[in-house]
């Protein structure tokens, strides 16, 4: 009986940067082929609950437009292209090797936006003005110090 009142929270997701509204992804239920997954050269688009989402387990999003180009149901379109994904990346100093005295530039080396600033040889910080939340830094961090927080999506 206790589970009746238990709050069920859905895991927040990162969407490809080409949508107008979160509700548009309901159209994806009618898509059989899911061409957005196959076209993604970075292998960051996965299907979860019949909808495309981005996971940074391997690489990041290059904003290459290919998933929008192949979307047959106009869920993803170039007209809706965003400059940033619906998430924010933050370096956790407690987990970060550089913040704890080990020379490590893994996140900075892979950052396509040049958005990771180092203060000295240590203390990397993500420059929010430059960062597009592409996620390349997440997968290469040897200590899982880059945390992803999801921003609200309409």
Strand content: 15-25%
Sheet with most strands = 2 strands, antiparallel
Count of distinct structural domains:
2
Number of strands: 6
Average pLDDT metric: 91
Overall shape: it is elongated
Compressed to H and E, one letter per element, the order equals: HEEHEHEEHE
Estimate percent helicity: 10-25%
**Cα end-to-end separation:** 33 Å
Number of helices: 4
Low-pLDDT runs of 5+ residues are none
CATH class of the largest domain: Alpha Beta
At CATH level 3, the topology of the largest domain is Alpha-Beta Plaits
Q: Structural class of the secondary elements?
A: alpha+beta
Q: Give the CATH architecture of the largest domain.
A: 2-Layer Sandwich
Radius of gyration: 17 Å
Give the spatial strand order of the biggest sheet: 1-2
Summarize the structure in short.
By secondary structure, the protein is an alpha+beta fold.
SSE blueprint:
Elements: H1 35-39, E1 45-48, E2 51-54, H2 66-70, E3 87-91, H3 106-110, E4 116-119, E5 122-126, H4 136-140, E6 146-150
């Amino acid at each position: 009986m206790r589970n009746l009142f238990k709050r069920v929270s859905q895991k927040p997701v990162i969407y490809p940067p080409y949508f107008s509204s979160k509700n548009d992804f309901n159209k994806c239920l009618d898509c059989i082929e899911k061409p957005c997954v196959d076209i993604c050269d970075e292998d960051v688009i996965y299907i979860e609950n019949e909808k495309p989402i981005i996971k940074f387990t391997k690489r990041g999003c290059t904003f290459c437009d290919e998933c929008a180009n192949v979307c047959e149901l106009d869920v993803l379109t170039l007209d809706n292209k965003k400059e940033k994904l619906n998430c924010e990346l933050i370096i956790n100093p407690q987990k970060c090797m550089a913040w704890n005295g080990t020379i490590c530039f893994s996140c900075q080396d892979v950052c396509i936006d040049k958005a990771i600033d180092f203060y000295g040889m240590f203390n990397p910080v993500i420059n929010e003005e430059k960062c597009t939340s592409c996620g390349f830094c997440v997968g290469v961090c040897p200590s899982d110090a880059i945390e992803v927080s999801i921003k609200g999506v309409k």
